[in-house]
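Provenance and format

Records in this collection were gathered into a single text stream. Each protein contributes a sequence line and a token line. The two records reproduced below are adjacent in the stream.
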Amino acid sequence: MSERAAIAELAERMARAAGGIQRERYETEFAVRSKSAAIDLVTEVDLACERLLVETLRDERPDDAILAEEGSGDDREGATWRWVIDPLDGTMNFAHGYPRFCVSIGVQHLRETQVAAVYDPLLDELFAAQLAAGATRNGRPIRVSDQKELGRSLLSTGFAYDVHVSEDDNLASFARFAKLARGLRRDGSAALDLCYVACGRFDAFWERKLHPWDVCAGNLIVSEAGGRNSDFSGAPAVGDGRETLASNGHLHTRMLEVLGESFAG
């Protein structure tokens, strides 16, 4: 087995293990607190999942860098392999008992994403990809949709945690797309939104002010399923999450046009 294949196997095993914690603690009592804003939540389940993931990596891949949302990893310079982890994407959903959340793990080799695993523990769906090897859901190949008309599309988006206080928000774009698309969803898990673009459930997804752990795995899954990722200028996505547009490719140019119109006022 190649090193990358072994890493992919480990990522999937870890995602399922953390997802098991989420499934076990779903709709139980747990501690919740706010971070950067009142709507930016972290639960003891986030922390338990991250602890499991980080401790596993320290045991099995001690030389690798770890960028984890809750800050317990060691994102050191110079490591060949780097794990980019969101231990519980969709924390607000989880805290409210809304069944849309997941574990997201992306793995980079020299800062190029090579491996991805996103696990939804309630639906028992594991989305996975390796660079230049395709994307799968529970081991079966997936592909983006063939929808070419924005008016027949189902889109997804989200809002940043500073939406209550910042005028630099997503509301104008949301309003424009709501008038143009067949449907628009805001489900609260960017990682799952990206996976849903990859498997054709959504035709496109856009969001602002995300972070690397929100998009690292999902972006690779989209591209390996035949989709396209970019920022809002159309430039290739750099993976920081600040501007994220993922689509089936057919809708990408039109999505960029509408985004440009909404920011122009």
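Adjacent record:
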Amino acid sequence: MEKINALSIDLEEWFHSELLEGQRPPIFQAPEATQQVLDLLDRYQTKGTFFIVGEVAERHPELVRAIFERGHEIGCHGFSHQPLWRLNEDSLREELRRFHSVMEGILEKVVIKGFRAPCFSLDNRTKWALRVLVDFGHQYDASIFPVKLNPLYGVSGAPMQPYRISLKDVRKEDRSSPLMEFPTPPLTLWKFKIPIAGGFYLRIFPLSFLHWGLKRINRKQPFLFYFHPWEGYEGTPRLKLSFTNRLISYYGIHSALKKLEFLLNHFKFARVDQILGLR
């Protein structure tokens, strides 16, 4: 039986990236970049989860309403896209309070089940955030990247399939935990774990390898795929950056949307909450 995978869209502005070396020009393109993603999902009759940055929602409430009215799940991506390592418990509570206040103003009584930390910044150094998520009524988190290749994120030894996450150790399952975790699984080849399920990895790897690798993951489990609208938008501004940051930020933008369309045509996707069986 064909697996149904989880599709997530991290709705943020292009300048929210941690790789832009502090530059934040006031050029706002989220609606234009997101509209082409929405149209693509409509074309393939696919619903996904949009993890939205609160300040984007505050500036563009009509965009949030359009996403919701098309049947997509609304999730939380923080208010100001601050990684957890820059916050503490009090400041995260304020971020979530502001996010939920904005969403209630736009969508009234909408239930926000899911959270994704900016930059996948949940690990055992920031596990204090899990209790805050529970207090705000979130039912699942989607912030664990179970391979450590990047200095910004990654949790070696974390499960690669959905699990009830321990509030004491994010690498462990606790069946009594009130919070589900849906990690972004890598491709496992021998002893190697290769991230392929979205972001820069979507842009840098050949489509044939992505297709083969995701099919291989599907032999055992569904995968959680992620995409940023700015990654597939030709109008994303190009800033002067270091070679590495420029490569990771801009390589493959011209083909990212076509790659996403190919995956929508060859895999089945649904909202994260539906895959997890949450209501």
